[in-house]
Amino acid sequence: MQQHMTRFGCALLLVLGLVACNKQTSEPAKPTAAPAAVVDTFTVLATTDLKDAQPLEKMVEDATGVKLRFKYGGTMESTESVQTGQANADAAWFANAKYLLSDPQGQARVKLQEKIMLSPVVVGVSQSQAKVLGWDKPEVARKVTWNTIAKAAQNGQLKYALSNPATSNQGFMALMGVVASAAQKSEALTAADVDRAAISGFIKGYKLVGDNSSYLSEKFIEQQNTRVNAFINYESWLLSLNQSGKLKEPLTLIYPFEGVATADYPLMLLNDTKREQYLKVVAYLKGDAAQTWLAKTTLRRPVNGEVAKAQASLFPQDSMLVELPFSTDRALADGLINAYLNEFRTPIASTFVLDISGSMNQNGRRKQLVEALQYIAGDDASLTGRVARLTSREKVWMLPFSEQVYAPVFFQLPGLPKADTARKGLTLQATDTEAKQKVLGQVRDYVDSLQMNGGTALYDAILQALVNMHEERQKNPGYQYSVVAFTDGEVNKGRDMAQFKAAYAALPEDVRAIPVFMVLFGEANEAALKDLVATTGGRTFDARKASLYSVFKDIRAYQ
C-alpha cells in the first residue's frame, strides 16, 4: 500500500440563501437572491490502486449531475471500516470484495454491487529471466503453474516484488494461488488443505515488500535485475509499466495455468438513501464512454461486451484466462494472513528511532508516541490490528535520541513451536504464547518509561541506526531490515543535512538498500524529512492529521 487512510465523513453542504436585510425603509428594496441549490456529494471509499481512476469524478458529474468524490484507503483498512459500519461513505469500490462478502457482517453492509472492470493477478518476469526459465516461449508459458512459480522462487531463480499479502488483494490472491496449486484443489479449498512447505518455498523469492503498487513500482524500476526480476501484480499495472519506458527491460506476463484471481472492481452501495445516485453512476461507468476510457487509460478489461471487443487489441491475445475460485472458508483466509505474518514471511528486523527531545512534552506528543508503541505491542485482534502488531520471530531495537543518541534497547519476539510449523493445514491462534506475551509486556513497560528532554540530533540517530542494522545484517542476513524514525521538530544538534548526506554516501551499498520510513509529527520540517527519505529510500508518513497509532498500521505494511 500504501498510503494512509483516515476515517472520512460524508460532506453535506446546506447553503441557506435568505440573508437578513437591515436597510432603512426609504431605500429601494433590493431583489432577494434565490436560494442556492443543495449540493449532494456521492462519496466513494476506494482502494489506493484506483487513484488512476480519479478523473472519473469530473466525467461522472458532467454526464450525470452526480457529484462523485473518492476517498482512498488500503484494502484491509477499508474492508474493516465497511464491516464495522465506520466507512462514512455512500459506496465502496475495491479491487474485489470476496473477503468482505465472506463475512455476514460485511454482507449486511452492502446493499447493491455491480462489477465495473476486470484485471487478473499475473506474474511479470523480466524478459531475460523469462528466457532463462524457458517462459519466453508461448507454448511453455501457457503451461506454467503457480507450483512452477513457487519452485522457481524457492531455488532463487525468481525474485519478486509483491504487495503485502496481509494488507492487499493482489498479495493475498497470489498466496491463494500457491495454496490451490499445491493442494491440487481449487474448489472447496479449506484451511486443512494448506501445504505449508509450498508457501515457505514461494516466500523465499519475496524480495521487495510494500503496501501499494506506486511505491513498489518505483522500487522495482530502481532494482530490476539486481535485487528483483519479477513483479506480481494486476495485469493492468504490469501492462502500464511495460508502456512507461521506465523499465530496464520489458516484462513477460505469465498467466498461471490452473487459474488467476481476477479483480472485478465491484462498486458497492452502502447508503441505501443514495440508491438513485448510485444507479446513475453505475449506468455511466458501465456505458461505452467510461468503459472505453477505463480500458485505454488504466488498461483494465471492460465488462461491457461491445467495448471489450472493440478494445481487445489492448490486451494479450494468447493468454488463457481461467478464473481461480475464491474459497468461502473464512478460517482459510484468516489463518493464511496470520500464518504469513507470524511464520511464512521473512522475519522483520527494525530499529525504531525515537525522538525524546524536550519538545515531545508539548501538546500530548509523548502520550501519543507511547500509546502508538504500546499499541503495536498490544492485543488488537482486528484486521488492521493484526498487521500492526509485533509478530513472531521479530527483532526490534528502540533507539532514543535527543541532543545525543542513546544506546539501543533490544527485544526479540519468540517464534512458533517447531511442531506448529511442521504440520499441514492452518489454524488461527486465539492467544499469544506465554513467552510472546512476556516480551510484548517488556516493550510496553520500556516505552512507558521514556522521558523527554534536550535537543534534536535526528540525523546522527538515523545514521547510527543504519550502521547498527548493517552490523546485524552481516551476522543475520535472513531478516527484512528497515528503520522507522519519529521526530516532532527541527534538527538543532549534531549533523546537518549536508553532513548526513556525505556520511550516508560513504556507507556500504547494502546499508543504503535499507529503507528509512519517516513519520511527520508535530512541527517536523516536512521538506527536510522528504529530502532525507529521497536520499535513503523508504517513504514519509504524515501523523499531523491522524492518530500516530493509525500511521503505525500503514508503516507496518511496508516492513
Q: How would the blueprint of this fold be written?
A:
Layout: E1 12-13, E2 39-47, H1 56-64, E3 67-73, H2 75-83, E4 91-93, H3 98-101, H4 104-109, E5 112-115, E6 117-126, H5 127-133, H6 138-141, H7 146-154, E7 160-163, H8 169-183, H9 196-203, E8 206-210, H10 213-223, E9 230-234, H11 235-244, E10 251-254, E11 262-263, E12 266-269, H12 275-285, H13 288-298, E13 301-302, H14 305-310, H15 330-344, E14 348-355, H16 365-376, H17 383-388, E15 395-401, E16 409-412, H18 418-422, H19 434-448, H20 458-475, E17 480-487, H21 497-505, E18 516-520, H22 526-536, E19 540-542, H23 548-556
Parallel strand pairs: 2-3, 2-4, 7-8, 7-9, 14-15, 14-17, 17-18, 18-19
Antiparallel strand pairs: 1-2, 4-12, 5-12, 6-9, 6-10, 6-11, 6-13, 15-16
Helix pairs in contact: 7-8, 7-9, 8-9, 16-19, 16-23
